[in-house]
Amino acid sequence: MQVGSMQVGAMKVGIVGLGLIGGSLAIDLRPLGHTILGVSRNPKTCQAAIDRGIVDDASSDLKLMSAADVVFLCVPLSAIAATTEQLIPHLLPTTVLTDVGSVKTTVVETIAPLWPNFIGGHPMAGTADSGLDAAFSGLFTDKAYVLTPIETTPPIALETVTSLVRSLQCRVYQCHPAEHDRAVAWISHLPVMVSASLIAACLTETDPTVLDLAQKFASSGFRDTSRVGGGNPELGLMMATYNREALLRSLQAYQQQLGQVIQQIEQKDWATLESELTQTQQIRPQFL
Amino acid sequence: MQVGSMQVGAMKVGIVGLGLIGGSLAIDLRPLGHTILGVSRNPKTCQAAIDRGIVDDASSDLKLMSAADVVFLCVPLSAIAATTEQLIPHLLPTTVLTDVGSVKTTVVETIAPLWPNFIGGHPMAGTADSGLDAAFSGLFTDKAYVLTPIETTPPIALETVTSLVRSLQCRVYQCHPAEHDRAVAWISHLPVMVSASLIAACLTETDPTVLDLAQKFASSGFRDTSRVGGGNPELGLMMATYNREALLRSLQAYQQQLGQVIQQIEQKDWATLESELTQTQQIRPQFL
Predict the structure, then answer these.
(1) Taking the CB of residue B158, how many other CB atoms lie within 10 A of it?
(2) What confidence tens digit (pLDDT) does each residue in A44-71 have?
(3) Gap between the Cα atoms of A209 and A214, Å rounded
């Protein structure tokens, strides 16, 4: 469900990881009156964040988070578990912890037992770039921001993070971590594997003349369909690793669907193929 | 191979089919000094083309083509055979005939025996819109325009059409019809089936909550990967019908590639998956 607008008082907001997401959160939250405390492993990033006025204070030491009312964990999925263990000795018992990982079941299962005052989050925004230099104001505007409370999530954690991210002009949604992961498997993780396989398949062409022509003729259709498959391999690997079960289920359904298309073309069953393509044309706008 | 620039004298250019492609050809060729003669089945389209100054003359009668030095056949693939048969009784023996169909083997095999002074062509340009109202100046600029001569193609046919389309600021390529069809199977026709199957696969989700979330969460990654699969079903059907053999070969290679990705994820063979995704990231720019 989408969550309505709320008022939010000035808070001390900790941000661990000053990259694209953490930096952009800081850039948009600080002008709203919050005090922004940033942590980065890299002292140069800390200094850059202070110099550019993105944060009120920054440090490579997680101790800085002891003053925070709420902490956004903005590190890669692979670093979330270790960072959480290092972070929690420094937190006040009342501090609300949230993360921005793009997969939720494993993250929530990892953090919630360590820090019950936690709520999983996933801002569905990003660019091809990364790092503090890529951060900008408005990254989250009109984007979906998914919060994934579970039975044991304290209402105050949900309310605090909802009010903060709502103030970024996001569309805020709530669902169970497993529902989130199955949904993003369809619309984010499956497209990466489908798209990467397209590029890889073209390379199986054994006639160098045809491959050369294919490269010369490729235009907007190939560019768009191959875009996410030609992205950062670490992201694709992360999706497969952390959302393996849901992704496999989507991949198997996709493979079956593709097999039907192949069969229709083999059997010259043009009526069924046309009906399928008509359906996909009609259905696609519901996803956009 | 890409063909170099040539000078071209003023000609009488016939265009049969005043849609997006035919109309845009007329719009850009007439200002270069050529006399443009247009044919459309629809008298209103003929009148509109005259009123807008797109053509010098237009008619629903193919007799108008008896004055043409060169005729561009700009009708849908499914209408090419019948239109050619109706057209050739009206042509001068010296008239060069070319077409703009997106598949070449079947077209060349159909037309060349009927009218030897023919060369197949495929301007790789288009928009989501169709019809004369969608035609515009510059549609072909910087786009690939493929010409597909065969052993029996008269040099004059190749030279005439090359010089005309070169004057549209196209990148002009030459290859055998079969090479063209295999190349476009990879970068144009396979992406449509891959993309349509993505949309269709999402609809197999049986949990309405998850499907609803997927529709709400879908953003640029899904939008781009699903774009060509959500396009005009007639175009997809045409690709499958007229380029069936090459498309099937590409689909089977794709299916095998996808099976490998699934196996890597099932077996948690992250090293191989990462190496594949790294390769697709590195290779994609060669297609753009």
Answers:
(1) 18
(2) 999 999 999 999 999 999 999 999 999 9
(3) 9
Contacts of B244 in chain A (CB under 8 A): 265, 268
Closest CA to A229 of B278, B255, B254: B278
Q: What is the pTM of this model?
A: 0.91
Is residue B25 domain-shared with residue B160, that is, in the same domain?
A: yes
If asked whether residues B71 and B199 sit together in one domain, one would say no
Q: What are phi and psi of A120, to 5 degrees?
A: -70, 145
What is the DSSP-derived secondary structure letter of residue B54? S
List, in order, residues 6 or more apart from A167 with CB less than 8 Å away.
A8, A29, A32
Residues 118-147 of A with CB under 8 A from B: 124, 143-144, 146
CB contact under 8 A, A228 and B224: yes
Strands across the sheet with B70-73, in order?
B57-59, B35-39, B12-16, B70-73, B96-99, B118-123, B144-148, B171-174
Backbone φ, ψ for residue A171 (5° rounding): -90, 110
Q: Where does a domain end: A121, A140, A175? A: A175
Distance in angstroms (rounded) separating the CA atoms of residues A250 and A246: 6
Place of tokens 């979906």: A144
Q: What is the ipTM of this complex?
A: 0.93
Q: At CA B260, angle to CA B255 and CA B265, rounded to 5?
A: 125
Bridge partners, residue B71, by sequence: B14, B97
| Position A260 pLDDT exceeds 70 | yes
* Full residue range of the structural domain in which residue A106 is found: 12-175
